[in-house]
Design brief:
Distance between the termini: 32 Å
Shape: elongated
Radius of gyration: 21 Å
Largest sheet: none
Number of domains: 2
Structural class: mainly alpha
């Protein structure tokens, strides 16, 4: 099962009046999805409109509200839906215990929690990890949910080592 979401990511933007002025029309159009309560939506609308119109402190507050409140809340709602779907529709055939796939060739499902088991199978994954350790002893060739990606932190977009695991595995 593949559920893709693309939420605005404000950490990539400098919180400024200029950026807010350009993105506010599209954000305003989707505000009711992120802040369904009318009072909260009206408050965010007022702050962000003022920021887009040139009020720098309001622009900073607008970016902050989206980044720290609205988007994380919406992501938690999406995660709850994904959890229910994972429970009801597991990524494994209940009769044969064979994994289903929700990915392109040679690419795991981005949101699959048990990617090593569902994409390669648990027994095969252990063997592949040993092969990887042999040919990539530093563990530098990585991608999201690839063999050995657990030795890197997902929170850092695979830029930092997961210091709780030793590489190469023994």
């Amino acid at each position: 099962m593949l559920i893709m979401t693309q939420l605005p990511w404000f950490e990539q933007l400098e919180p400024s009046v200029g950026y807010l002025d350009r993105i506010w029309p599209k954000l305003r159009a989707s505000l009711s999805k992120f802040a369904p309560a009318a009072a909260e939506a009206a408050e965010v609308d007022a702050v962000c409109a003022a920021g887009a119109a040139g009020d720098h402190p309001a622009a900073l507050r607008c970016f902050s509200v989206w980044q720290t409140e609205l988007i994380p809340r919406f992501q938690r709602q999406i995660d709850k839906v994904r959890d229910v779907l994972d429970e009801v529709l597991p990524n494994v055939d209940p009769v044969t215990d064979a994994p289903f796939s929700g990915a392109y060739w040679s690419e795991t499902d981005y949101f699959e929690r048990d990617y090593s088991g569902s994409y390669w199978g648990a027994a095969h994954y252990a063997r592949l990890l040993k092969i990887k350790a042999k040919y990539d002893p530093a563990g530098l060739f990585i991608c999201h949910h690839c063999v050995g990606s657990e030795f890197w932190t997902a929170a850092s977009s695979l830029n930092c080592r997961n210091t709780s695991l030793a590489y190469p595995p023994s």
